[in-house]
Amino acid sequence: MTRISTPFSAKTTAAEILTGVDLSGRRIIVTGGASGIGAETVRALRGAGAEVTVATRNPGDGRRALDLSDLGSVRAFVAGWSGPVHAIVANAGIMALPTRQVAANGWELQLATNFLGHFALITGLHENLRQAGDARVVMVSSGAQLRAPFDFDDPHFERRPYDPWDAYAQSKTADVLLAVGIAGRWAADGITANALEPGYIHTNLQRHLDEATMRAFGAMDDEGNLLTPDYYKSPEQGAATSVLLAASPLLDGVTGRFFSSANQEAELVQGGPDATTGVAAWSMDPSAADRLWDYALAATANAHEASNAS
Ligand SMILES: NC(=O)c1ccc[n+]([C@@H]2O[C@H](COP(=O)([O-])OP(=O)(O)OC[C@H]3O[C@@H](n4cnc5c(N)ncnc54)[C@H](OP(=O)(O)O)[C@@H]3O)[C@@H](O)[C@H]2O)c1
């Protein structure tokens, strides 16, 4: 399969992606759209005329309440939605929590927030996506998906030692597999799904990282001042690939693919400790995507039954 290329680069901003594009009448949900990359995604989509709903834990002006780690909150959001959804940008996320934290239902918090909550949201809005006729699902993953496959034996670190980066990595692998799973299931509804890595951007995401880790990224000096290495992007550039996948006509009909922060389709590589670029074969594996779909469907259904029973 030929890899898709675009005229854009790692330096292209989200607004530049949408130059000349009219999104009037398109209703788009951006999770975690109140800060960081999400806020810039929202700004660019609104700038092109889209009606954007910001789904956030802190609702307010133009924002709707959504806590992805709480299935009750996800279900309330879904129940409160009516009419078509033209795109969902699954952007909200948390990274590398230093110790194992769990949601109220016992799920490891990164998996709950980054993947399972989004799975419940997107599958809950399937009919609304179908109504749009040409809806797009955008999974904001990460280069971290290169680090670890999804661990079907122990996804919540109940038996294996907790590792902050492995927990983040498997949640981001799961995000890519969800795009693959949607591509394989919902094409007849006109729904496409793709995933991306935004690159390195200074945002609130790094709040759990210690100074040694920030220095290892080249993002902090010895005095604790933030540095911006050349390979870092501004938030406006960091939002570009999300916007490309959510709304650019260049991606019409494209589904089940992974795009790099340079706004090009990524190369398929073997994941592992030495992998630095591309998308891991384990993230794009259709059989893993099927297995994950079944796992997530059962997990979210069981959690619903448990909360009804309590
Ligand atoms: N920045 C980077 O270098 C980088 C690199 C690779 C991938 N990414 C990915 O990019 C995405 C956006 O991250 P960012 O860098 O823009 O970080 P950010 O500024 O921290 O934004 C993440 C957003 O996620 C939301 N969020 C967290 N927990 C939530 C929950 N339980 N329910 C609903 N929303 C929740 C937060 O929204 P509220 O607190 O307002 O609810 C926050 O606005 C993430 O998926 C991240 O993994 C970022």
TrEMBL record:
Which InterPro entries does the protein's record reference? Answer: NAD(P)-bd_dom_sf (IPR036291), Sc_DH/Rdtase_CS (IPR020904), SDR_fam (IPR002347)
Keywords in UniProt for this one?
Oxidoreductase
- Name-wise, this protein is Probable oxidoreductase
The protein's matches in SUPFAM superfamilies, at most eight in alphabetical order, are given as: NAD(P)-binding Rossmann-fold domains
* Superkingdom of this protein's organism: Bacteria
Q: Specify the species.
A: Nonomuraea phyllanthi
Record-level Gene Ontology MF annotations: oxidoreductase activity
Q: Spell out the family assignment given in the record's similarity comment.
A: Belongs to the short-chain dehydrogenases/reductases (SDR) family.
